[in-house]
Model the fold of this input.
Amino acid sequence: MPKKIEALVTPEVMKWARVKARLSVEQAAEKLDRTAEEIEQWESGTNKPSLAQARKAEKVYHIPLATFYLHEPPQGFR
Done:
């Protein structure tokens, strides 16, 4: 079984991206095939998504993958 590659994303940016996509935690969890608890853990920093999960999130949230690695949510991003 392949080893999970952890994506070292910024929790605040993960939450910002979900909110920007106008998704509740539950809606995001459904679209990402994860539990709401997992999404909350990504957004609080208690757990990190795998790289594959972050790539899926970029599609669901309509955000470039690199954005998740910023130190803080971007300003003026459309």
In short: Helices lie at 11-20, 25-32, 36-44, 51-61. The longest helix spans residues 51-61.
